[in-house]
C-alpha cells in the first residue's frame, strides 16, 4: 500500500470544512477516516516563508473538525530551508505518486514569480522513495530545454514499467512538453502548435475578478496502457476550449514525434467559457476528469465515447462558493476522486477573507461522482425499476377505472330495476346506496381509493 496516495498544491494554508455538501462529492473533513495526503505549495510571493511553501504530509484522524490540520514538512525541514542558499525543494507546483511507491515532484525553481525580482533556479524533477522518504533522483532539466518564459506547472507519470517509467512535464509559459526517461536518466523537449493558447480563450472571470491569461499546455492525463504498453496522453492548454490527444508512442522518442506531426489529434470542444486547468484520467473507468475554472465546476468525459461533444460531457460538481477555482484533481488507488479548490485568482487580484473557508479538499468514490451523469458507467437498474413502477401505477389506475366503470354500469341497470320496486326511495338514493354497499362489501375498496 502507498503511504502517500494523492498529491495537491496549495498557495497558503489548507483548511478543511464541514459545511453542507452535495449528494455525492463531500468535503474531506466529513469523512471519518485517517487522511494521508501530500500537499505542495509554490513560493509564488516572497511574503511566504519557507514554512508556507513546503511539501507536506498531512496525517490526522478526521472528526468533523473545522480546525486546519497541522502540516508536516516533507521529507524534512532541511529540504525547504533557504537560509543557506538554494534548498533541495524550491517551488513545487504539482506532484504525483506512482504505483512503484515513488513520489515525483515537479519543481519549477522560481521564488516570487509574481514579483519583479523573481529568484530563478533551474527547474528540476525530484523523485522520492515513499517507503524511506529518501531522494532517489534530482534531475535538473537541461538548459536547452528551459526557455526564458518557461513555467513548468503540471506533470503526468507513465508508470506501466517501474524500470522504464516516463514523466511528462508541461511548460505553460513557452509551449512544450519535456519528456523524462527514468531508464535513460535523460530528457528531451517536444513542441507542437496544439500546445499553444487560443487567443480567443484568454479571458477569464472568477468571482468578479476579470483577467487575461495566456497559459499554454496545462491539463495532462494518461490513459491505461494499450496492448503495446503505450498510453494516450489527453491534454489541453489552459487558455483553450479544446481537448487534444496523442499516443505516448510518439512522445517517448523526439525524432518520432517530430516525424509524426499528425499523430496529435483534436478531439473536440468543451463549449463557451469552458477553459480548463488540470485534468486526470481514472484508468479503471476510462473517465477523464477536468476543471472548469470559469464555471467553478469539475466535469467529466467518458473516453470510450467516439465524440468529444458537450452532450457527452457531464458536470459532477458545481458550486459558486465552495468550488471557486478548482486547481487539482486526482484519483487514488482506492478508486476515490479528490479535488482541491483554492481561490487563487482572488488571492492574486484581490484579498482572501480570513473569515471564510478559502481552501477545500473534496472527495468521493469515482462511481458515486459520475452517477447519473453523461459519464456514468454503471447499469442503471434503479432507473429501470422506477420506470417499471411508474408504468405499473399508471396501468393500475387505468384498470381500476375500467373495472369501476364496468361495475357502475351493471349497478345502474340494477338500480333501474330496484327503483321500480322501492317506491319510498328516490332513484338517486337507491342508486347511491346499492353502489356503496357493493363496493364496500367486495374487493373494490382499494381500487375506489386509487380512483379517488
TrEMBL record:
Family matches, as InterPro entries = 6-blade_b-propeller_TolB-like, MRJP/yellow-related
Q: Does the keyword field hold Secreted?
A: yes
Q: Does the keyword Glycoprotein apply?
A: no
Instruction: Indicate what this protein is called per its UniProt record.
Output: Bee-milk protein
State the organism named in the record. Leptidea sinapis
Q: Which family does it belong to?
A: Belongs to the major royal jelly protein family.
Q: Name one GO cellular component term.
A: extracellular region
Gene3D superfamilies per the UniProt record, alphabetical: TolB, C-terminal domain
Amino acid at each position: 500500500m502507498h503511504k502517500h496516495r494523492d498529491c495537491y498544491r496549495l498557495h497558503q494554508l489548507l483548511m478543511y470544512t464541514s459545511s453542507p455538501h452535495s449528494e455525492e462529492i463531500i468535503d474531506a473533513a466529513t469523512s471519518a477516516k485517517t487522511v494521508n495526503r501530500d500537499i505542495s505549495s509554490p513560493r509564488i510571493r516572497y511574503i511566504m516563508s519557507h514554512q508556507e511553501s513546503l511539501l507536506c504530509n498531512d496525517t490526522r484522524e478526521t472528526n468533523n473538525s473545522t480546525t486546519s490540520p497541522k502540516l508536516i514538512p516533507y521529507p524534512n525541514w532541511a529540504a525547504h530551508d533557504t537560509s543557506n542558499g538554494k534548498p533541495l525543494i524550491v517551488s513545487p507546483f504539482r506532484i504525483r505518486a506512482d504505483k512503484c511507491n515513488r513520489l515525483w515532484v515537479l519543481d519549477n525553481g522560481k521564488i516570487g514569480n509574481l514579483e519583479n525580482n523573481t529568484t530563478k533556479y533551474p527547474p528540476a524533477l525530484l523523485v522520492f522513495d515513499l517507503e524511506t522518504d529518501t531522494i532517489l533522483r534530482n534531475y535538473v532539466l537541461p538548459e536547452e530545454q528551459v526557455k526564458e518564459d518557461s513555467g513548468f506547472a503540471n506533470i503526468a507519470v507513465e508508470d506501466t514499467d517501474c524500470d522504464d517509467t516516463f514523466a511528462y512535464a508541461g511548460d505553460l509559459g513557452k509551449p512544450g512538453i519535456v519528456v523524462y526517461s527514468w531508464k535513460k536518466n535523460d530528457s528531451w523537449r517536444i513542441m507542437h502548435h496544439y500546445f499553444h493558447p487560443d487567443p480567443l480563450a484568454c479571458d477569464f472571470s472568477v468571482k468578479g475578478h476579470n483577467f487575461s491569461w495566456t497559459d499554454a499546455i496545462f491539463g495532462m492525463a494518461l490513459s491505461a496502457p494499450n496492448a503495446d504498453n503505450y498510453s494516450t496522453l489527453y491534454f489541453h492548454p489552459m487558455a483553450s476550449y479544446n481537448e487534444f490527444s496523442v499516443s505516448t508512442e510518439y512522445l517517448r522518442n523526439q525524432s518520432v514525434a517530430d516525424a509524426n506531426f499528425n499523430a496529435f489529434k483534436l478531439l473536440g470542444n468543451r463549449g463557451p467559457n469552458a477553459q480548463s486547468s488540470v485534468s486526470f484520467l481514472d484508468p479503471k473507468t476510462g473517465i477523464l476528469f477536468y476543471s472548469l475554472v470559469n464555471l467553478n465546476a469539475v466535469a467529466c468525459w467518458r473516453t470510450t465515447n467516439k465524440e468529444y461533444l458537450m452532450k457527452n460531457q457531464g458536470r459532477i460538481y458545481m458550486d459558486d462558493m465552495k468550488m471557486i477555482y478548482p486547481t487539482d484533481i486526482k484519483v487514488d488507488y482506492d478508486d476515490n476522486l479528490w479535488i482541491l479548490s483554492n481561490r487563487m485568482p482572488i488571492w492574486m487580484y484581490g484579498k482572501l477573507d480570513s473569515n471564510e473557508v478559502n481552501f477545500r479538499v473534496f472527495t468521493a468514490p469515482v462511481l458515486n461522482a459520475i452517477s447519473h451523469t453523461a459519464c456514468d458507467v454503471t447499469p442503471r437498474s434503479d432507473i429501470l425499476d422506477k420506470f417499471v413502477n411508474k408504468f405499473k401505477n399508471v396501468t393500475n389506475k387505468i384498470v381500476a377505472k375500467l373495472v369501476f366503470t364496468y361495475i357502475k354500469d351493471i349497478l345502474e341497470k340494477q338500480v333501474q330495476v330496484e327503483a321500480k320496486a322501492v317506491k319510498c326511495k328516490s332513484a338517486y338514493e337507491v342508486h347511491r346506496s346499492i353502489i356503496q354497499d357493493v363496493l364496500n362489501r367486495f374487493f373494490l375498496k382499494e381500487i375506489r381509493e386509487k380512483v379517488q
